[in-house]
Q: What sequence folds into this?
């Protein structure tokens, strides 16, 4: 079999002829970024053939210069003989950089937990000393002392717990501290330690996002957040959205690769959170985790292909409780892991967790809409009488994916843009200050809105090629806009936004607006009937509502009806970690939600097509955005 050697690590692997270079890298324990899931459509898996040759299929994403220099796309190139391949350095998306995800690092959500009843609780008790001829084992004596305190008929004891018991019982003459879970019909012992002075137990709340993972370390006795960490999901190397991930997971070894990457990401962030708080991972006895349906499947190693195939059936919606060792989490091996219930193929536990932050969770009856903006846009509409939910594939544009100079809302990203009404030139701010490295979703929305309202971008997303704006450059049939010149940026390359980038943004906003509009029409309401419009997700922190309305992402309703929830999934997951009432409420809300499959809704494509313009083809839906033809003095489009 041919040998493939990868540089710079210098790893080699023998693979059958016909194996793609991306699969050969996986066999060698390496990852080559495949944002499209290995379909050959993104052009991001560029590698260089240093020695030998590979059978490379043609790609429109490779330039003549790249091909001449020996670069090929790993997912489109097959091994035919011994070959040496150079893997370029990963970009910022693959690095564990700090991300601004809209999380309050000290509170993790404004919701207080009055009924503190965490997933596991700490019990301190005295166990009688062994007596001659009493016929009782160490476990018998512990069980007799513990069950009355828990009011439980039965307590389950895992083998690692029993192994520790004899030593811990004798450390302080029978005085012990036991961490125990009481969620199911039978209590389950988690951890035993000698002595009764042990500090309160710890838990973690995890938001397993498609792009970003967030972790909070929490005191189970006080409910206080001790540390918050967030970073990229390593799975982004295998696909930017859930569809790409499912495509990538088509073979068992790739599914295992995705599972390993998700676990590595979560475990890394949990370790950082523990280190920051000066805590041991062994002290973590409970984990509450929320993610969309696909992310839950990939974390557990469940094949996701049936989610995308008619009749779109997940392997599981309500996930049973597991131990940390079963899932692969690097905390106490017996720690209880609760995964938030999903509702449908593309509406998962991140949404049912986020629902805990809405007024409905406290008994309010007003009509509300919850929108979680991300790679997968999820929506819930309802009141005390009904709950309707759906998901739309918005794509990664809001998170900087699929944009030539796009990046997440992290240090170096242009997050705010203003456009001069006369010259069309841009002013901008950069997260963290300094020189920009790219532009994030909120900056892209600001730019599109500003150019549109100033008359330099038409309703179909085409830039003004008349020459009136020096930042617009036309190259054949494609035009682009320079936000930051080369001499202003970190890497000496200009930050440009092309018409293709704008088109990707318009498709994303159309998917979300049309899905929300369709849901309202299904139950005989309009946007004007909403009392509250909840916006969730870290992306929303940087979102200018007026600009989002101007491009048709959000409806044209009074601004005081919008509520920003931040990372609602993480905040709701923390509530579920700490409160039995909220866990029960989450289960009840999930059971009430009716899942709407947009692909089976005949009106969706009509709604989507109508929304593929700025702000919309039906301008009466956006009365506050007044569009006027530009006059000779360059005055034009304005908004109020």
A:
């Amino acid at each position: 079999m041919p040998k493939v050697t990868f540089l710079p690590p210098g790893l080699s692997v023998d693979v059958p002829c016909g194996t793609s270079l991306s699969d050969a890298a996986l066999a060698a324990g390496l990852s080559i970024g495949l944002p499209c899931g290995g379909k050959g459509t993104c052009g991001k898996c560029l590698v260089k053939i240093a020695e030998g040759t590979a059978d490379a299929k043609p790609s429109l994403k490779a330039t003549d210069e790249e091909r001449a220099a020996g670069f090929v796309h790993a997912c489109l190139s097959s091994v035919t003989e011994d070959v040496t391949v150079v893997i370029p350095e990963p970009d910022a998306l693959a690095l564990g950089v700090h991300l601004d995800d809209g999380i309050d690092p000290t509170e993790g959500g404004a919701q207080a937990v009055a009924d503190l009843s965490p997933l596991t609780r700490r019990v301190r008790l005295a166990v009688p000393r062994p007596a001659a001829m009493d016929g009782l084992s160490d476990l018998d004596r512990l069980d007799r002392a513990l069950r009355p305190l828990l009011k439980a008929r039965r307590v389950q004891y895992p083998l690692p717990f029993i192994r520790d018991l004899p030593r811990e019982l004798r450390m302080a003459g029978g005085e012990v501290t036991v961490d125990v879970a009481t969620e199911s019909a039978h209590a389950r012992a988690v951890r035993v330690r000698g002595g009764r002075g042990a500090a309160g137990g710890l838990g973690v709340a995890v938001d397993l996002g498609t792009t970003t993972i967030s972790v909070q370390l929490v005191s189970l006795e006080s409910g206080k957040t001790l540390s918050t960490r967030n970073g990229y999901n390593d799975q982004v190397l295998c696909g930017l959205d859930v569809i790409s991930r499912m495509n990538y997971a088509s073979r068992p070894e790739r599914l295992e690769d995705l599972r390993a990457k998700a676990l590595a990401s979560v475990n890394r962030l949990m370790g950082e959170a523990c280190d920051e708080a000066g805590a041991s991972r062994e002290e973590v006895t409970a984990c509450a985790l929320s993610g969309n349906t696909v992310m839950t499947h990939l974390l557990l190693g469940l094949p996701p292909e049936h989610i995308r195939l008619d009749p779109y059936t997940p392997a599981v919606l309500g996930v049973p409780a597991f131990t940390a060792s079963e899932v692969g989490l690097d905390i106490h091996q017996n720690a209880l892991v609760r995964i938030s219930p999903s509702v449908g193929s593309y509406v998962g536990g991140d949404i049912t967790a986020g629902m805990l932050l809405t007024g409905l969770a406290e008994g309010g009856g007003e009509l509300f809409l919850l929108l979680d903006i991300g790679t997968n846009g999820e929506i819930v509409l309802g009141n005390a009488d009904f709950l309707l939910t759906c998901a739309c594939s918005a794509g990664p544009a809001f998170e900087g994916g699929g944009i030539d100079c796009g990046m997440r809302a992290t240090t170096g990203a242009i997050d705010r843009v203003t456009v001069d009404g006369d010259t069309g030139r841009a002013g901008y701010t950069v997260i963290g200050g300094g020189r920009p490295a790219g532009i994030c979703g909120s900056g892209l929305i600001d730019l599109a809105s500003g150019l549109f309202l100033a008359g330099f971008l038409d309703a179909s997303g085409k830039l003004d090629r008349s020459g009136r704006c020096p930042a617009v450059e036309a190259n054949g049939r494609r035009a682009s806009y320079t936000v930051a010149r080369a001499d202003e940026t970190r890497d000496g390359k200009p930050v440009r936004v092309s018409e293709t980038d704008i088109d990707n943004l318009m498709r994303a906003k159309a998917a979300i607006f049309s899905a929300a509009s369709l849901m309202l029409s299904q139950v005989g309401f309009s946007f004007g009937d909403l009392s509250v419009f909840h916006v969730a997700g870290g992306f929303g922190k940087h979102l200018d509502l007026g600009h989002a309305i101007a491009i048709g992402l959000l409806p044209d309703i009074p601004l005081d009806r919008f509520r920003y929830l931040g990372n609602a999934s993480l905040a709701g997951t923390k509530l579920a970690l700490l409160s039995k009432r909220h866990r029960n409420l989450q289960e009840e809300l999930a059971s009430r939600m009716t899942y709407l499959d947009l692909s089976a809704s005949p009106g969706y494509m009509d709604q989507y097509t109508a929304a593929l313009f700025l702000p919309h083809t039906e301008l009466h839906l956006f009365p506050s955005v007044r569009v006027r033809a530009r006059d000779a003095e360059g005055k034009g489009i304005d908004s109020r």
In short: Residues 91-110, 627-640 have pLDDT under 50 and may be disordered.
